[in-house]
Design a protein that fits this description.
Aminopeptidase; single chain; 11 helices; 20 strands; globular; Immunoglobulin-like; Membrane-bound Lytic Murein Transglycosylase D, Chain A; disordered N terminus
Length: 436
Amino acid sequence: MKVYRIAGLLLLWMANPCLADVVTVKNLRMWRAPDHTRLVLDLSRPVEHRLFTLENPDRLVVDLQRAKLLGSLPDLDLSGPYLRRVRTGTQKGGVLRVVLDLKRKVRPRTFVLTPNRVYGHRLVIDLYAKQAGMAAEPRDFTPPPRERSAKIVVAIDAGHGGEDPGSIGRVGTREKVITLKVARELKKLISRDPGMHPVMIRNGDYYVRLRRRIEQARRHQADVFISIHADAFPDRRVRGSSVYALSPRGASNEGARWLADKENAADLIGGVSLRDKDDLLAKVLWDLSMTKTVSDSLELGRDVLRQLSKIGPTHRKRVEQAGFLVLKSPDIPSILVETAFLSNPAEERLLRNAKHRRRVANAIYQGIKRYFRRHPVRAVTAKSGVYYVVRSGDSLSMIASRYGTSVIRLKRANKLNGNTIRVGQKLRIPVNDVGG
């Protein structure tokens, strides 16, 4: 009798589209980043939704079509800048309404995510400050030259974060956790070095868009960009650390994107504005800049890989090249370090060990130091003025443009008779041109 009853209920469910099409909202989670707050609704399957705002008081409303809430909403930390309260209600036609009572006006963004190893279908709601907004998130740009100390600025990028766990080991170790721990160890080492200054791209459990990672590094005028990851592979026997730089094809594809937006972006490539250049000249300038950056990235990668080989096996004996988006800054040598394979049980155990993570961080740090012994920072502030150390590929016109001066003034300040300069030469920058 019970079998017939269950079969009858199933037939009723299938015959009634109002029941069969219902999307279940199983949970609500929240991630808070420095520039936005992310809410994530866990769903039984994809959902159609509508988003709109209301005023007096400020509210954000999300209507989910043919949906219902399973249980009640969890308690959320509402101490952040945007949310006052989250509540739900049911509207006509089986619409589940989620209302976000706001502390201030926001500019929202919503999108859906497909299942991964940890979560199923999800609806993501990102809240940005109204005055900053989506359109005003920092764009790619080259910051204006500024007087800087002799310290090397190292941008440290802990991969993944927040809703993106990255790879997951056999015992549940999440890549986003390991990368942040290694990044923090690297930050400690760099902070103790009087010649270096660290910049953390991600310093908590939240997600940073890939282009935003590049933008943050450029805003801080980073000298190098180090992205930290932990690999995974179906074959659990695969092991070893590896280092990646940008591939030529990845550089070419990125160049096309930048050059297409040159009129709006006001970007600088190698210290030369692209806005007033024709397409061919702009592409030549881009290619020169990117070729030099990729070459420096490979050199930096070799130094880091050499140090990593001293503490364990390497997956490859040379620096690999791929089109990773986070490596596509046109003017910052950038590498991606795969610290080990989380899919390998032995390496997962190592990455869970704080002592080994410190060894990995130290290897990266030593590689950076080795690289900068051959490549001094771009400008040095001394009692007698501001100086620039010439690097391979530099020219007087490029240096003059970067520091807002003229070639004539630059030559006069350094008593140069011609246009020839040599790698390692220290050039005095006219003080008035750098705000001294």
